[in-house]
Amino acid sequence: MSAPGRLRRFAIRTGAVAAKEATHAVRDPRTLYLALGMPVVLLVIFGFGISFDVEDVPIAVVDQDRTPDSRALERSLTTGHEFVVAARPDDPAEVDRLFRERTVSAALVVPRGFAREWAAGRRAPVQLLVDGSDGVGAQSVLGNASAALRAEGRRRLAAETGGAAAPLAAEVRLLFNPALRSAVFFVPGLIAYILYIVGVLLTALTIAREQERGNLEQLFATPVGRLEVMLGKLLPYLALGLLQALLVLAFGMAVFEMPLRGSLGVLGLGTLLFLAGALAQGLFISSVAGSQQVATQAGALSSLLPGVLLSGFVFPVENMPLLLRALASVFPARYYVDLLRGVMLRGNGFDALWGDFLGLGVFCLAAVALATLGFRRRLA
Amino acid sequence: MTDAIAVEGLGRRFGAFHAVRDVTFTVARGEIFGYLGANGAGKSTTIRILCGLLAPTAGRATVAGLDVAADPEGVKRRIGYMSQRFSLYPDLTVAENLDFFGGAYGFSGRALRRRIDAIVEETGLRALRDSATQSLPAGLQQRVALANALLHDPELLFLDEPTAGVDPASRREFLALVRRRVRRGATVFLTTHYMDEAEYCGRVGMMVDGRLAALGTPAELKQRLVPGDAWSVRSARRAELQAALAATDGVRAVHPHGAGFRVRCDPARLDGATLAARCREIDPAAELEPGTATLDDVFHAVVAGGGVA
Ligand SMILES: Nc1ncnc2c1ncn2[C@@H]1O[C@H](COP(=O)(O)OP(=O)(O)OP(=O)(O)O)[C@@H](O)[C@H]1O
Ligand SMILES: [Mg+2]
Prior knowledge:
Number of strands of chain B: 14
Structural class of chain B: alpha/beta
Distance between the termini of chain B: 25 Å
CATH superfamily of the largest domain in chain B: P-loop containing nucleotide triphosphate hydrolases
Low-confidence stretches of chain B: none
Bound molecules: adenosine-5'-triphosphate, magnesium ion
Order of helices and strands of chain A: HHEHEHEHEHHHHHHHHHHH
Structural class of chain A: mainly alpha
Number of helices of chain A: 16
Number of domains of chain B: 2
Distance between the termini of chain A: 31 Å
Shape of chain B: globular
CATH class of the largest domain in chain B: Alpha Beta
Order of helices and strands of chain B: EEEHEEHEHHHEHEHEEHEHEEHEH
Largest sheet of chain A: 4 strands, mixed
Largest interface: A-B, 26 and 35 residues
Largest sheet of chain B: 6 strands, mixed
Strand content of chain B: 25-35%
CATH topology of the largest domain in chain B: Rossmann fold
Strand order of the largest sheet of chain B: 6-7-8-3-9-10
Helix content of chain A: 55-70%
Oligomer: heterodimer
Low-confidence stretches of chain A: 162-181
Shape of chain A: elongated
Number of domains of chain A: 2
Mean pLDDT of chain A: 82
Number of helices of chain B: 11
Radius of gyration of chain B: 22 Å
Number of strands of chain A: 4
């Protein structure tokens, strides 16, 4: 057979698998819901639920100084919407009880002599206590409070020295998230997480289902090759996945006010690679799982864990121990989170994000290869 | 001209278990070959090896002149296969199933349309083209599966219990379709539990515990393995009657069949009148129906006697 003839047959057979798979997908309400309904539901639930924008956090203020200066400090915390004063105990020991009863999540203690030390230009210690039992929330509270206190400090310094050298806090997060709105920072991670888990689950069932129903034996008896099956199954779900990504990104931009400072092309290509990798991961799981039940569980686990823990969504990858960092580098989620933040918040292009593209591309190729090789075309 | 199928010393082991052991036979072109055997006898295992789906662990097999172990892909292009399990996509329509399997064999566009038009005509499925496969009764689903297997005009057709669980009328129609293909030159390898179906086969092979225990045309097998007369007996006191007849001189075999049982005797030692009288002694209401031996009798003789190939 000639080479063009072979290529033509390859295309026909791949197309036949793709058409069949597309028909399965559009006829199955569960697939459609999984692809187009669930992502939006997840985004809403998580977006607002873990909206790390902490507002109106109840705070206890123990003002032992009782001077105009100490009251100004307190005001600096409460003029934004971040904190409301929920208690004013006289005794600092009270604070402990308030924390235990969960009446407050933070406390500001201004010791006697604060205004005097401040006026004398010496270190004027104040104490800020934050309930650490809600780790992520605490970080935001701490961030908000220390930012407010620092700002107040700068304001006074500037007032006294006549506007000279105000100290600048060089925190990366502040640079790209000036309003300190955490949604903007977390939504890219959330989008990556949702696209990842849904992408893997979309394809995780496809081969296992055919195996359980006995369709696979019939398929093996035809001349359809392994790669043709894999690509044929990948293509329709890639189209569905892109639709899903469009929906999720548009929703993120409309509801959470995500900016898109970079190019749509960079975003689109990165999303395509990420989705293809996730779908191929699902196909690999499906081809080795043997049953739909195992495939669902393996699919959920293998996307949920890396998607949440190893993506930089919640915990920065750079701060992880070496072993976890190496593990995180295997999965595509961290590259996509980085790419989303880069292209959406920082307006980066290929030049800055090529490492992410490389990571996504390598994973995608490896997953397609593994899925194809893991798919045995013989029985037993 | 070479044989359509040639199998020599074929075997397949699963661990220590021999599902198929030292099987040898040939199938001529244009023949319908029936492969019979009880559950677990090794029928499906043999058919899977011949279709290039399972590698043999011993012996060799050629299908359409190609070695199934060396060139399974070549074999797959030349054969049509209907697996034992329901193998269509239930959520797709008849036409969509045909579209898919046609594409799987590399047909597209006008060529595919022409083939589908022809096959739905041949199998009488034209009116059902747009019906969801899962909504069809079992008999029609089998016909759709046959249409899928025939779409690419294979020279060989492998059917693994194609009519299991289907009503007799649908079975007859199904076999008529298969025989029409054979008249057009196809070779058919068919496994079945139904002995009446096997009567239609040019030759049959009988599998017992992984071995080919008997091989020949239905007439040959009957003449060689179950010569003499055969009777169908119905009686309310079946067990008692069966035991009495089994102990009677001149009776070769007694085995249950349907609601009654079959008796084979040596005509030289026991004639029909004597047999009838013997039955009436025990159950005056017993009904006897004379007849010739069937493949079912052959099968029971083979299973009971270990068989003679
Ligand atoms: N993949 C496998 N692994 C282990 N044992 C197997 C495998 N496939 C078949 N067997 C065993 O081999 C034996 C023959 O099976 P096979 O399916 O060929 O029987 P069969 O004649 O087709 O029976 P049936 O009439 O039930 O379809 C059975 O005992 C079966 O359990
Ligand atoms: Mg079988």
